[in-house]
Amino acid sequence: MAGDLFQDLPPPSAPQFQELQSSTAKETSSDPPPPPAPAHALKSALKRPKPASQEESKPEVPSSGKRLRFKTTTDASETQVIEAMQKIASHIKNSSKFGKASKLAIQLIQAGSVKPATSDYFFAILEGAMSSLTTCNEASLRADYHALFSAAQDVVECLSKKQKNLLSVWTIRAVLANDLFTDDSFVFSKASGRVKEVLSSLPVASKDDDEEEAAALDEIEVANAGQPITDNTSSSFTPEGKEEEPDPFGLHALIPSTSKKDDKAKGKGEAVIKNRKGEEEEEAKKFLRGQREALISCLEIAARRYKTPWCQTVIDILVKHAFDNISRFTSRQRDAIDKLWASIREQQIHRKQGKSVSGKLDANAFEWLQEKYANEKISIRHSVGGSGERRCEQWLG
């Protein structure tokens, strides 16, 4: 019956059927609607979705936090460092191998391998380098010596007092003296000023210094080690010269014999103290003698560069300062300074009297300015005239 009732009605249209179908789908399904199509196809095609974060792309790291690391340095043991220092010390005496050996020694300093435990082995490297006091000033080795002993200043605290004194003397020869060979006027002036400072710190030389210098030149080393003090407590003579009875009342058997032991121990202690003082005094004298000889070497190197025009004024001041402080040197060194000063003065006279290739007086900048302004008329007013002449009219308005 129901089918007969709807036979006369027309079939539903397509739009109405779609609306009916969509409404029924909404009621029966809970799925979300599909996303709308992008408005601009070209823009969406060029855009790419962002990749996942690096944390998602990386594999999971265990919670311990360990990471893969590459070792760029190797930690050498103390035994390996000592063996390396001994090997460097055996090769650094050879001039042909000095460049490579000195660079390896500098690497040990920069790596922090020079410590109080290894300082003696490192000092053996420096001692081997200065086995010849003239090699450090050779043209092919100056830069390497300068670099090595400049870097050695960073480990001075690890050395003993005796080693520090020797290093300071070697630094004068290897650093200051080599700076006097430079072509840089600033470096030359700075090194000259440093030489003057060290020279001014020297004490006045005495007759003992002259005698010790003569002994050192003759290669005779005077041993100042103190001899043990003799024990005079067992002497059987009184201050008046009378013989004393050994034990007139028989009391020595009742008194413990500790005085002789104490006196012997005291005598040994005094001998040790005397030996130490003698060694310290000897080291101080050696240090002063080394400083004086190194400074004389610097003065000679500077004097040989007097032909360079821009060095002349600095050398004049340096040698004059040494001549003014000549009492701080020994007799032989005083003779050397006298000869240097006489040579410098003679060259000054020749330079002022003679003429150079250009036909002008061969004078340095200081002397040229000194001669220029010696006869110059300078007015108290700034711009009064050409040479101080009052040719302008003054007026007050």
From TrEMBL:
It comes from the Eukaryota. Residues 259-281 have a biased composition (Basic and acidic residues). Residues 1-76, 221-281 are annotated as: Disordered. Residues 15-27, 227-238 have a biased composition (Polar residues). This is Nucleolar/coiled-body phosphoprotein. It comes from Cinchona calisaya.
